[in-house]
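Worked Example 4.2. Read the sequence first, then its structure tokens.
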Amino acid sequence: MRCHRRRRSYLGIGLWTVVVLLLAMGTCLAAAPALWPVVKSSRGATTRVAPGVFYSHYQLVTASGPLSVHHLRIELNTPSVRLDIGLAHDQLISGDETVSSMVGRTGAVAGINGDFFDIGDSGMPLNIVVRDGELLRSPSGWAGLAIGKDGTTRIAHFQWDGSVVLPGTNVKYWLAGFNTGIVPDGIVALSNIRGYGAPVPQAGIRQTVVDLEPVESDRTPAIAFAPRATVPPADGIQYTVRQVWPQQAYYAPFPKGVMLLVGRGDAADWLAQHLIPGMVVELHLATSPDWHDLRLAIGGGPILVGNGQLVDDPRSPVPNERDRRNPVLAAGIPKDGTTLLLVAVDGRQPRLSVGLTQPELAAYMRWLGAYQAMAFDSGGSVTMVTRFPGRPFPTVVNSPSDGHERPVGNALLVFSNAMPVSPAVAAHPEPPGTPASSQGVVFVVPYSPSR
């Protein structure tokens, strides 16, 4: 196989870019990732979005069809760079929001779509959400990308183990979830960030809603059924029962600091029998690994690479899509954890990009040097957005398969205090496919997350 190189001018700017082969060390495509179709040709370029943030676009021709591949490389040890979670309209239940809108209104320099979400209904992300060190939604057991308060980045399956405890007797009842959907014959805890309270129960469904406020509130409980701890337990938060509402709805927004317990079926009976206004309860919002050590976490899945090896994740959110070519999105971390590589591959567009299967995506992430890697929501949700230097609006750099951006439940956002921008100018994103080469200096840097 011969390797072809050429160069051309970008849109009359006078910048020259070398058409490079998509290889870590500049060698021929004979060393393409395992499990891939034969790669006939490849070209690409890289531009700096901000210090420590680089965007690359590669166009490949393979035996199975064309591929359009997008990278965002984030150097996590760059002091000016910060990652954060974007929530659609800043709540869990919403009409969803495009990634470019979230990038724009927050002043981020880049972003990708995140977790799978309840499309066409509540819009809620379906897995763990931790933002600014606060748990916003309990995990579902699928994979999550997490950054610790110490800066450590990791990928893991997060499990839920929440409970409500009566301190005086240590009677405990398992919490089915935190800021999730309402569960039949279970108790869920809800906070204001969820965006919607407890609905009216349908005929024949037993429901009990318990209104809680933190014990630190100025309110004095009418009844103290157990001694109050002067310091809340390390693994639980104490609340005072304000009111118990049988067979009633309770709508958001809640008063500040209020938490709801919503039980249905036998769980509704337990709440009605054990909790009355004035008593103290503890809520234990526990996960494994422990979310208290995290600054942020965002869900997705499946896991693609673990400890440098390809993984066939048995807890995939979409096992039926494993061997289908789709638009895909993934995050990869090298062994030293200093870099985060985000990869989006367009799909379902035969003339532009046919997409990848999950095994092909996993092989590609490992080939790039990922020691850990996982996927995010795929299909029409796949979106990568950057705000290039000198451009007031964010740009959708990939080609969403719906023909336009799909509103999604949450996003992983990249911020840089070295590139100040005003969120006020963010309402009108550039259209998909705006050439990255016109955004600033173009660097030809084939790379992997480990370099």
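Now turn to a second chain, presented in exactly the same format:
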Amino acid sequence: MRISDIARRSGASQKAIRLYEARGLLAPVPRVNRYRDYSEKVVGTIFQVLVEEGSSRYRSLLSQPGRPTRSLQQESPETGTL
């Protein structure tokens, strides 16, 4: 499966997927005719990375002193405005 298919299924950008691979968050992907050939398992791994990335971003918002609760609710991952 090509990177465009994985990006569409996971919701992550192609650039983010390449970054995850470069940082070692995804196992090296075999290449077929110079194109990365992703397996179905990669989608699940990318979901895990996105969830962890989102939770750490939310934790950093919570740790900001003097931040009103209402603004945190407006920026929460559930509302999709983060």
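Notes for the reader: The helical segments are 3-10, 14-22, 41-62, 69-74. The radius of gyration is 16 Å.
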